[in-house]
Amino acid sequence: MKDKITVIIVSYNTLKILDECLKSLSQSKNIYDINIIVVDNGSTDGTVEYLYNKRQTIDAINNNINIGYGKAINQALGKVKSRYTIISNSDIIFNDETIPGMIEMLRKNNKYAMIGPKLIYKNGTRQISIRLKPSLLNSILQLIFISKIYYVYKETVLTVFHKKMVKVDCISGALFAGRTNALKAVGGFDERFKFYSEDVDLCLKIAENKWKVGYTNIANAIHAHGASSFKKVGQKSIFVCKQIVAKTMLYQKWFSMRKVRILIWLHKIDCLKIIAIKKLVTVLLSDYYSTDMNIVEYDQWCIVAEKIDNKKQI
Asked: Are residues 146 and 47 in the same domain?
């Protein structure tokens, strides 16, 4: 008898990539009894009709508006009865190793509640699939570039010492496998996070409840990074602002107001550092490096800092 696994996918006006995602899942159906739940957040691109036509093989939850990623996941999570749950963006392309690799690690490591795979771009280059938890120390490490060593170190441990998995602070919410009971025990995603930072918050809650978060490179998947977020260059600044608001909410949830102010201050310095480096490289190499998004990011951190100082709603 095949093991039962539930795959939850959230979509929002991503019909083409959603179709690719669902087709790629068929490779794992020979191994597992997979129940697919797609939560659509008010798409207007034909996704609703597409899901209706696939109602024999896919459970669909159709929301009239975009209620946010975390809340959409929680809608589906409440219906899950399988032991393991796969959470996926709609811009993920699975292969025949993706799900078996993650599930194998969960089976063999009972203290782990979440396992993230190696995420790669369509051209084969690796994405950063793990991250440090937010803290003053880690923000300082990022400021002086040392945080990059964390990613290299974890990947080196897996490769050099032939390990299949390592413990990490946080994994990407784009794709991961989790123990259903653990995800439900911590209340799933915090629905106050509409866009971004909900994955980091979930990892922090998992750790707070004495579970571990892992990363494995025996499982990988293509992630068309940003395809399910913004499809036009003009939209990018809007999403940068949303990311910063979400980060600020995360800091306010987990840290004292004094630490929140220091973290924001460190982010502002980091933005100025990147702007200065790009301008220097532009001068030295006569090759233009745009600082537009970095300036937008810096300005938004200034706005957030001012709101906090004035005790206004973020």
From this structure: yes
The domain in which residue 246 lies consists of 233-309
pLDDT tens sequence across 231-264: 554 567 777 888 899 999 999 999 999 999 999 9
Q: What is the pTM of this model?
A: 0.90
Considering only CA atoms, which of 199, 208, 157 is closest in space to residue 178? 199
Per residue, the 3-state secondary structure of 270-293, as one string, reads HHHHHHHHHHHHHHHHCCCCCCHH
CA distances from 141 to 123, 145, 147, 156 (A): 30, 6, 5, 19
Alpha-carbon dihedral sign for residues 127, 131, 134, 136: negative
**92-93 and 170-171 beta bridge pairing:** unpaired
14 with 68, same domain: the answer is yes
Tens of pLDDT, residue by residue over 19-48, are 999 999 987 777 888 999 999 999 999 999
**DSSP 8-state secondary structure symbol assigned to residue 112:** E
